[in-house]
Amino acid sequence: MKFKATLACLALVMVIHTESIAAPGVPKPLAAQIDHLVSLLSDGDAVGYPEAIQFQALNTHPSQEVTLAVFTVEGFGGGNNFRQYLAAFSLEKTTTGQPHYSLIDVMPIGAGGWRSINSLHARLIGETKNGGSIFTIKALENISDDAPNFPSKKVILKFVLENSRLKELK
Fold first, then answer.
1. Got the DSSP string for 8-77?
2. Confidence band (pLDDT; 50, 70, 90) for 10?
3. pLDDT tens, 79-122?
């Protein structure tokens, strides 16, 4: 009986601990902001998958950098489904000099039966007339023969970040 109680406590500690673990290398302030987004985007059942966070700094202008992050929220409605989101952040310093990632925008970018971003390698390809940034990301898209969580068609997604908004270009 004592062994079962110890095992149950250990399992609970592991669950609580793993929910706060981000992918290796993800800065803690960025992981905290993504955790806030997961809370906002969840339906109450869905949770984040912190080990799958991908991020990349992208120099959009000579003196401007944007941090892109792809993160996953899974278990909507208590089921076995997920959504991926793309978020853009600006890196700022607090009054105490600590890094802070300020959210610019967030949008759905993938889901089971739709498409998946397996590796975030954004590439800046241009600028809009209004000074926005155009970038691409490689993805896999589902075709009719694919299982929902196993997309096979390679695609290149094109996005614009302009006036503090992310938009996918078709």
1. HHHHHHHHHHHTTPPPTT--HHHHHHHHHHHHHH--SS-EE-GGG-EEEEEEEETTEEEEEEEEEEE-GG
2. very low
3. 888 999 999 999 998 899 899 999 999 999 999 889 999 999 99
Other CB atoms closer than 10 Å to residue 81's CB: what's the count? 16
Output the six-digit token pair for 67: 């941090």
**d(Cα 158, Cα 135) in Å, to the nearest integer?**
6
Tokens standing for residue 38: 């997961």
Instruction: State how far the Cα of 8 lies from the Cα of 36, in Å rounded to an integer.
Output: 28
> Contact at 8 Å (CB) between 11 and 41?
no
pTM of structure? 0.84
Question: Quick check: 139 and 110 in contact, CB under 8 A?
Answer: yes
Determine what percent of the chain falls in helix, strand and coil, rounding each to the nearest 5. 20, 45, 35
Q: Does 36 score more than 50 pLDDT? A: yes
Q: What are the distances in angstroms from CA 165 to CA 17, 18, 86?
A: 34, 32, 12
